[in-house]
Write a structure and sequence with these properties.
The protein is mainly alpha-helical and 104 residues long. The chain is built from 4 helices and no strands.
């Protein structure tokens, strides 16, 4: 694979995957920085600290993807339920409107 091919390759996420990817990347960066600080405080060698931080980065990215996906689905489901409740309050069903009209 040439360098030009790699430059032309785009990674595209669907709108559903963006939330999980953003959460995963943020969690991974926080974990990476924390692991590097731990390596600095413990005065470990540079290569060992970077290797440990990279492993932590990958693990926490995977965990963040899962948690982000769960959070996205929960928020989407709750939003849809709230929307249906508000919609039913604002726009009454046609069956209720015909029942009220027939009783009057």
């Amino acid at each position: 694979m040439s360098l030009r091919t790699l430059q032309d390759t785009e990674i595209r996420f669907s709108s559903d995957e963006i939330v999980a990817a953003q959460f995963g990347s943020r969690l991974a960066l926080i974990a990476f920085a924390t692991a590097l600080m731990r390596g600095t405080i413990d005065r470990t060698d540079f290569v060992g600290a970077i290797q440990f931080a990279m492993i932590v980065l990958v693990v926490f990215f995977a965990i963040g993807l899962m948690i982000g996906e769960i959070g996205y689905r929960l928020a989407k489901e709750c939003g849809e339920v709230e929307f249906q409740i508000l919609r039913s309050e604002i726009i009454p069903d046609s069956t209720e409107a015909t029942e009220k009209t027939s009783t009057e």
